[in-house]
Structure formats: structure tokens, C-alpha cells
Design the sequence.
């Protein structure tokens, strides 16, 4: 009898322990996030990957910054909802964006992770006598006129794309040819932004997979700024021909096209850039507000400005007013958008370093913080002043030391994508400085670190990739003077050499 009581007592104790274990396991499973969850900080941290590492890039400060988490909150929340709704991003830039190498890299990486919401805005650039993006090229026939936002006095109104084409030639046409495998099979929605009028020519669209052309009425009676076309199948060639169907028709005016997926999820990352554009360029786009309101992006990235000071003096007050006006316009026509402000990396002009890039970094930072925007300090992240020489010596920049090579733009895109992951990781773990903000302590490498002053004598420590002519330009002396002071028999120098400058 005693043995039986002991037996049942052991069972009751074990059952109770098992129940405790089972309840604890359920509680843990409810609190523990799946290992591949986008809400799991450990998973997000593992997404930060760099294919190459360069000593002159400040990876440790590759973050977005904000002084109020409300500036970035909706971006992260909508990013993890892309399985249910489409995230729209509008990236506005200049020549670094028009070719789309950098922004295309960002778009591809985000769409790989969150789904393909569309190709975004495309433009018949050939009719405006300029180059297309990397993934398609354009051609045209007939007589075309155009306006671009880099012109102080444009002849035609412009919208989001920053350019407009216009023709009164009833035999004119323009054509898009996309690279094979660049378009997803779901990119079948085409929106042609144009000037609707009873005097407008109509269009005929010939796709590579259709026997008969699609007839397009360019004067639909609605308030939309575009004509919508739904393709049966995706086509890598789209040829639009002017179709005069009435004697009253006398012109056609186009502001660009948007290619979207037919499903309502994923990322729709749109890049729009014009060579030579600046902040004032956006303010010249009369149709920008109405098209912006209709497109309704969740995130707007303002990524230009160097053209406002590259060829002349740095006008801090004017640039600050123009940037603030662009921000105010975006907020006026959108409901609580996330606005990200970036800046220029170190650049040169005619072999002279543009010192105003540092001032531009400070201007964009101050404006972003004052206007409660998100800030991306690409100037210091990419290396700060004189770092462009290192980008060039590592085959990341072109000879002009303004534009980047394909590898360089991919590196820039990689930095931007990883800045998203780094910042999101901090947001999830609430590792923020100053309570509700994320402000990175700046690392500002300056040439003074490589300059030694002894009495009245100035010495320079040679950096990797530097040439004697560049050093001479930096200190406003001649190559011959440096060679004479240092008893050099040729202009060949090596890293870590200490040169007497004067």
C-alpha cells in the first residue's frame, strides 16, 4: 500500500513538472521570433554583408540618422508589410541617378528580399537627346522638342521625371528596348503620363508579342494625369507611334511612363534623375506636385545638390531655402511621408578638390534635423575630403573624379542597402542615442592628419594612390618645387613617404 502511494505521488509530480514544462515551452515559443523574421534583430544584423572592404570607407557610421524616430518609423513598418501592400519609393537625383546603376542596385536588392512591385519610372530619353538607364535604351524617329529641369527657362511643363518631350510631327515615334530578363513577368501595367487634350495626337503601341498594335486614346475624360494600359504579356520592346485620328489634333506631349506589377505587394522603387539637376530643378517642375500626390510614395529620397555649387560659389542661404522648399512641397502633397536627405561624396573639378562638399554635408545635416527628416551623410561615410582619389585608385571612380564606375556605383548601392539594415537593427533594439534619436558621432578624416608642421616647414605624408601633381595642387605649389625640396629625380612617389612641401 505504501509502495502504491509512493508510485502515484511520483506520477503526479512528474505530470505536474511536464505541464509546467509544456506551458513554459508555449510561452517561449510565443515570445521568441522565428529566426528569419524581419522583426528579429539577429536576422537583420546578418543581412549586413559587404562583398569588398575598403579602408577609406567609414563602415562604422553607415547608418541613417534622425532626431525623432517618427521620421523613420513608417518606413520600417511598411517595409515588413510588403507581403500585403506595395511599398513605393521615389529616389530623386542627378547624373548619378539617371544612369540608374546605383539606384538600380538598391532596387534589385530590396526586390529580391521583399518582392517586385514594378520597374518604376522610365523615360524616352533619346527624344530628349540624352542617355537612358542601364537596363534599357531608347530610340526615336521624327521631329521632337524637349525640356529638362536643368534648364533655367524650360519651354514645356515637367513632372516627376524631370523632362518632357513634345512633337507636332504626326509621323514621329519613340521606342523602349529593355535588356532581356530585366523585366518580371508581372510588370504589365503601363501608365503614360501626358498632356491630355482634344488637340493631342493619339498613339499606337506595338509590343513584341502582339500581332496588332494597341490603339491608345490620349484624351480620356478623367482626372488622372496618365493613360493606363494593361498588357496581356510582358514585352521587352515597346514602340509608340503617333496616331493622328482627327484633323484638330496637332501635338503630343509626354512626361514619362511608369511600369508596375499587377499584384499589390512588393517594392516599387522609382529613380528619377537628370544630368546637371539641383534643388532648383525640382522647383521648376510645375507638374511635380500633382503627379507626386497621385503617385503617393511612402518614401522620398532627395539625393542631389552638388550641381548647385560645383561650378561656382557655395551659396548656403539659397541652397538651404531651395532644399527647404522641396521638403515643404513634398509634405504639402503627401500624408506623413518619410523623407531621406543624402549628399555628395568628395568630388573634383579640373583636378581641384571641391572643398564645398564638406559645407554641403553640414548644410544637409542641419536642414534634415531642423525639418525632422532622415539624414544619410554619404559624404563622410564614403570617406570625406580627398577620399575620391582613393575611389579612383581602386577603380571605383572615373577619371573625372566626379562619377563612379559600375563597380563604384554598386559599392555605393551596397552602402545604402546596408545603411537600411543597420538603421533598422538599431530601431528594433532601441539602441538609440539621446532617447528617441539616432545620431552618429562623426568621423571626419581631414588632410591635416597627413600634414606635419615643423617650425615654418610643412611636410606631407603620402597616401595610397596619391600623385605628386595632386599634392602640388593641394598645397598650391608646383611639382618642380616639391621635387627640388626633396631631391627627387622623378615624380614617382610611394605611400608613407614624407615630403617637404615648403
Sequence:
Amino acid at each position: 500500500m505504501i509502495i502504491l502511494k509512493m508510485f502515484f505521488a511520483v506520477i503526479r509530480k512528474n505530470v505536474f513538472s511536464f505541464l509546467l514544462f509544456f506551458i513554459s515551452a508555449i510561452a517561449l515559443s510565443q515570445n521568441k521570433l522565428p529566426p528569419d523574421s524581419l522583426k528579429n534583430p539577429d536576422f537583420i544584423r546578418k543581412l549586413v554583408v559587404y562583398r569588398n572592404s575598403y579602408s577609406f570607407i567609414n563602415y562604422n557610421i553607415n547608418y541613417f540618422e534622425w532626431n525623432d524616430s517618427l521620421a523613420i518609423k513608417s518606413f520600417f513598418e511598411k517595409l515588413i508589410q510588403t507581403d500585403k501592400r506595395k511599398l513605393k519609393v521615389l529616389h530623386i537625383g542627378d547624373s548619378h541617378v539617371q544612369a540608374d546603376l546605383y539606384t538600380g542596385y538598391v532596387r534589385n536588392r530590396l526586390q529580391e528580399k521583399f518582392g517586385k512591385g514594378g520597374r518604376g519610372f522610365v523615360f524616352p530619353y533619346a527624344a530628349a537627346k540624352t542617355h537612358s538607364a542601364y537596363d534599357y535604351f531608347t530610340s526615336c524617329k521624327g521631329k521632337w522638342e524637349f525640356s529638362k529641369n536643368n534648364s533655367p527657362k524650360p519651354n514645356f511643363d515637367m513632372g516627376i521625371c524631370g523632362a518632357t518631350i513634345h512633337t507636332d510631327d504626326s509621323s514621329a515615334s519613340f521606342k523602349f528596348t529593355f535588356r532581356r530578363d530585366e523585366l518580371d513577368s508581372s510588370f504589365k501595367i503601363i501608365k503614360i503620363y501626358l498632356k491630355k487634350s482634344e488637340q493631342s495626337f493619339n498613339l499606337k503601341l506595338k509590343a513584341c508579342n502582339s500581332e496588332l498594335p494597341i490603339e491608345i486614346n490620349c484624351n480620356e475624360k478623367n482626372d488622372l494625369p496618365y493613360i493606363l494600359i494593361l498588357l496581356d504579356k510582358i514585352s521587352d520592346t515597346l514602340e509608340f507611334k503617333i496616331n493622328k485620328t482627327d484633323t484638330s489634333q496637332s501635338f503630343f506631349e509626354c512626361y514619362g511612363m511608369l511600369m508596375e506589377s499587377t499584384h499589390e505587394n512588393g517594392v516599387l522603387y522609382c529613380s528619377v534623375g537628370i544630368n546637371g539637376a539641383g534643388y532648383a530643378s525640382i522647383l521648376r517642375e510645375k507638374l511635380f506636385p500633382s503627379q507626386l500626390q497621385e503617385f503617393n510614395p511612402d518614401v522620398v529620397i532627395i539625393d542631389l545638390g552638388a550641381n548647385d555649387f560645383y561650378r561656382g560659389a557655395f551659396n548656403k542661404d539659397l541652397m538651404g531655402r531651395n532644399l527647404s522648399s522641396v521638403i515643404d512641397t513634398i509634405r504639402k502633397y503627401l500624408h506623413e511621408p518619410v523623407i531621406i536627405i543624402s549628399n555628395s561624396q568628395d568630388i573634383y573639378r579640373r583636378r581641384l578638390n571641391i572643398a564645398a562638399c564638406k559645407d554641403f554635408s553640414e548644410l544637409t545635416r542641419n536642414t534634415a534635423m531642423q525639418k525632422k527628416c532622415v539624414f544619410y551623410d554619404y559624404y563622410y561615410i564614403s570617406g570625406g575630403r580627398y577620399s575620391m582619389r582613393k575611389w579612383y585608385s581602386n577603380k571605383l571612380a572615373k577619371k573625372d573624379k566626379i562619377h563612379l564606375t559600375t563597380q563604384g556605383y554598386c559599392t555605393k548601392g551596397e552602402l545604402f542597402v546596408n545603411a537600411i539594415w543597420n538603421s533598422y537593427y538599431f530601431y528594433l533594439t532601441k539602441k538609440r542615442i539621446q532617447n528617441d534619436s539616432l545620431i552618429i558621432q562623426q568621423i571626419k578624416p581631414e588632410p591635416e592628419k597627413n600634414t606635419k608642421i615643423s617650425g615654418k616647414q610643412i611636410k606631407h605624408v603620402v597616401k595610397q594612390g596619391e600623385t605628386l601633381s595632386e599634392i602640388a595642387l593641394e598645397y598650391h605649389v608646383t611639382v618642380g618645387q616639391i621635387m627640388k625640396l626633396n631631391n627627387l629625380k622623378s615624380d614617382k612617389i610611394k605611400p608613407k613617404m614624407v615630403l617637404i612641401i615648403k
Summary: The longest strand covers residues 252-260. The CA atoms of residues 212 and 234 lie 15 Å apart. The first helix runs from residue 2 to 31. The chain has two domains: 50-429, 448-500.
